[in-house]
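Students often ask what a holo structure prediction actually looks like on paper. The answer is less mysterious than it sounds. You provide the chain, you provide the ligand, and the output is a string of discrete structure tokens encoding the 3D arrangement of the protein together with pyridoxal-5'-phosphate.
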Amino acid sequence: MTSRVVDLRSDTITLPTPAMRQAIAEAELGDDVWREDPTVNRLEAMAAEKLGKEAALLTASGTMSNLVALLTHCQRGDEVLLGHEAHIFHYEVAGAAALGGLELRTIPNDSRGRLHPKDVEEAIRLPNIHYPRTGLVCLENTHNRCGGAVLSEADMEAVAQVAHGSGIPVHLDGARIFNAAVALGMPAANLASHADSVAFSLCKGLACPVGSLLCGSGEFIERARKYRKMVGGGMRQAGIIAAAGIVALDSMIDRLQEDHDNARLLAQGLAGLPSLRLDPASGQSNMVILQVEGIPAVEFQGRLREAGVLVTYMGGQRLRLVTHYGIERADIEEAIQRIRAEASALT
Ligand SMILES: Cc1ncc(COP(=O)(O)O)c(C=O)c1O
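The corresponding structure tokens follow.
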């Protein structure tokens, strides 16, 4: 086994930067449930401004932001339309159903994470005593289970037009919206403009230890604040968390390009091997998805672990590799060599 382990499991494993640790230590604090934490107030104002929304709310996690958004947009018994590969559908413990009484109805995502406007249009419920009300349409950008796929502004706009045309709001799970914005070379606000609410994460590529922001209109965030309290997310001296978030929004967005360059290098280095296929979106942002051929993907994952490369099993024959703060170009070059060696042993 080689010396340094290259950990490509997730961008959630990132550790705070020295500047974040210092900001956390020096943060000015107050009780945020009483809206008296100046550091939280500052972060929320910055987040709203970056996303082009009136207001924002700090929550404990992406899962909490999405749940609070769904609770705020919908009433019990409503149906929420979202992609069959959506994070909200797969990995958020059915909180919308368990806690919100909401039905999640899936529409096919294509391999680039998109929803087709026609599918959304056909899924929207007509007024009929037998049907639930369609309460919300959700998009995800970048798209996690679709290999970090980046939805273009036009992709988002097309779906939003259909939803808004029927008076239905749109929520964007933008946990990695800044990855999408950097990949597209446009402000995140352009993408956010097609959604009524946007959740983004601080604790993924932006490298904060904790936190997510839900952004929307002033009136929406006012109501969301109450739902955040309901689900136990009213935090007191949360400036401890927000201080790192301010550093992230100030200085960690542009560097996401390095992660994207590294993911592209990884995708190029692993292309064309007989035993590994790459999902089409690989290298669009900070992810690469490998389809393993010949042996079970979990077994190949184990061989990679032995060789000093950690990756995530995504079900079926899929393995996910994520580039992030703390992973350098040299680590990627090393990972490519190790993965190629293990892959060639399969043929
Ligand atoms: C697209 C997406 N949405 C939401 C989340 C949830 O974030 P958290 O882990 O902070 O709850 C994640 C986490 O990986 C994600 O990838």
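The chain has 14 helices and 13 strands.
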